[in-house]
């Protein structure tokens, strides 16, 4: 198994009963989830604060990505034709998303379970943009282990064709719940990319509609690809998935 050096943080709110199996919320882009960060223009998601204030039934595991390796870690496949159509050039990757997904579920998760002596009742993956891409792929690769997905403005266009094929090949359960949203003006400065981004997410939604799952698709008018918008939508999405 390929080794990864991503840091992680485990957050157990006081209102959670530690003697019962937990609902685990795993967030990609962990460095943006818990504290102010200049890359998010100061709009951190503050997931731990949300869990405390709303007394949500989740225990939180956030996983940081390694600087300059985010695209490679969060993409399970090389970029394809839809990516070229969207960007106008071939984005050459060194994709290790498949290996990252294996490391997350088969190495990190068992270590966290042992370290914190926890029993898991359900697992929800949360991802934004490319974080949503690797989160969906992980659910598709491990449908027996993952229960729910929260996808915020998924950058599926990078691996569009491969992810669509993976959806077709996956055996879902009717207990799977997937929340998937996007904004209507993802890239404010480029109308064409925004249109492709919308098409990409709608294609994923339509593919998932064919599966025996509970699907919650959302479209947000005027929202850009920005943490200012993501922050409020994540709050709503988590409440939808409970």
Number of helical regions: 9
Spatial strand order of the main sheet: 1-3-2-4-5-6-7
For the secondary structure, the number of strands is 7
Mind telling me the C-alpha Rg? 17 Å
Order of helices and strands: EEHHEHHHEHEHEHEH
The total domain count is 1
Can you tell me the residue ranges where pLDDT is under 50 for at least 5 consecutive residues?
none
CATH class label: Alpha Beta
Structural class: alpha/beta
Could you please say which CATH topology applies here?
Rossmann fold
Helix proportion range: 40-55%
CATH homologous superfamily label: Alpha/Beta hydrolase fold, catalytic domain
Any idea what the CATH architecture is?
3-Layer(aba) Sandwich
Largest sheet: 7 strands, mixed
Shape: globular
Distance between the termini: 33 Å
What fraction of residues sit in β-strands?
Answer: 15-25%
The average pLDDT score comes to: 95
């Amino acid at each position: 198994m390929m080794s990864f050096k991503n840091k992680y943080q485990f957050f157990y709110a006081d209102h959670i009963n530690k003697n019962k199996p937990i609902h685990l919320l795993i967030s990609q882009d962990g460095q943006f989830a818990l504290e102010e960060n200049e890359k998010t223009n100061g709009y951190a998601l503050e997931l731990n604060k949300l869990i405390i204030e709303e007394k949500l039934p989740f225990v939180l595991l956030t996983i940081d990505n390694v600087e300059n390796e985010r695209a490679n870690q969060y993409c399970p496949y090389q970029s394809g034709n839809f990516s070229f159509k969207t960007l106008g050039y071939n984005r050459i990757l060194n994709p290790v998303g498949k290996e990252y997904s294996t490391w997350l579920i088969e190495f990190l998760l068992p270590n966290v379970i042992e370290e914190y002596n926890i029993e898991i009742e359900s697992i929800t993956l949360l991802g934004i943009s490319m974080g949503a891409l690797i989160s969906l792929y992980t659910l598709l690769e491990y449908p027996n282990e993952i229960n729910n997905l929260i996808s915020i403005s998924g950058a599926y266009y990078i691996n569009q064709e491969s992810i669509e094929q993976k959806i077709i090949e996956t055996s879902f359960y009717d207990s799977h719940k997937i929340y998937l949203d996007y904004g209507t003006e993802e890239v404010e400065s480029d109308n064409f990319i925004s249109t492709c981004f919308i098409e990409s997410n709608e294609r994923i939604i339509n593919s998932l509609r064919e599966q025996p799952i509970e699907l919650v698709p959302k479209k947000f008018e005027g929202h850009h690809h920005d943490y200012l918008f993501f922050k409020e939508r994540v709050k709503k999405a988590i409440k939808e998935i409970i």
